[in-house]
Amino acid sequence: MEPLYQLIKGCIERDNKSQQVFYEHYYGFALKTVFRYIYKYDKATDVVNDSFVKIFNSLEKFQLAKEKSDTEKILMGWMKRILINTAIDELRKQQVAPEIGELPEYIWEEMDRSQNADQKLLYKELICEVKRLPPSYRNVFNMFVIDGFSHNEIAKTLGISEGTSKSALAKAKAQLKKFLENRISHKSYAIQK
Q1: Could you give the maximum distance between any two Cα atoms of the chain, in Å?
Q2: What is the structure's pLDDT at 107?
Q3: pLDDT at residue 174 above 80?
Q4: CA-to-CA distance for 46 and 48, rounded, in angstroms?
Q5: Mean pLDDT highest for which of 7-11, 46-50, 184-188?
Q6: What is the DSSP track for the chain?
Q7: Phi and psi (nearest 5°) for 134?
């Protein structure tokens, strides 16, 4: 990949090659982020593409970090906000619970090449369990635990009270805890055999 500053500059100048390199480099990150909210693969890719249009249109507003080493981390945080807001806007348009779908197997490879096989399997299983949560619990869990939103930010974004956000998070954690306890007890049973 070109140095990040040059790549961002090229995207701001609407250079197609720079935008393509940027898109391909961050596509897995974007899909992984959106898929936590929208579980139908075709719809998630549409939201990712809509998000990249928004990212390219607003990239000139992005504030570069003083330390070059921090720029990518800050850029990914900035992009994550756009991705999540675009996904939530899509869910609001639908006014129904998102359809649950599966990601093709090759997408898991695209999403995070840095994880080992056990980490990928656990991540995949956890995402599948998060998908089973009721939509209100799932969205709050994703926003708070995975994406780092505060309860105040969640309340404003989803149009709920902070108390509702806290309650949904507690219930989501309780359901996921049951899953992990069951997983551990089944694994222990299999090892004993």
Answers
A1: 62
A2: 46
A3: yes
A4: 5
A5: 46-50
A6: ---HHHHHHHHHTT-HHHHHHHHHHHHHHHHHHHHTT---HHHHHHHHHHHHHHHHHHGGG----SSHHHHHHHHHHHHHHHHHHHHHHHHHHHTSPPPP----HHHHHHH-TTS-HHHHHHHHHHHHHHHHS-HHHHHHHIIIIIT---HHHHHHHHT--HHHHHHHHHHHHHHHHHHHHHHHHHHHHHHH-
A7: -60, 145
Closest-CA residue to 26 (of 87, 112, 121)? 112
Architecture of domain 1-111: Orthogonal Bundle (1.10)
Going from N- to C-terminal start, the domains of the chain cover 1-111, 115-193
- Mean pLDDT taken over the chain: 81
21 has a pLDDT exceeding 90: yes
* CATH code for the part of the protein at 115-193: 1.10.10.10
Single pTM value for the model: 0.69
Residue count of the chain: 193
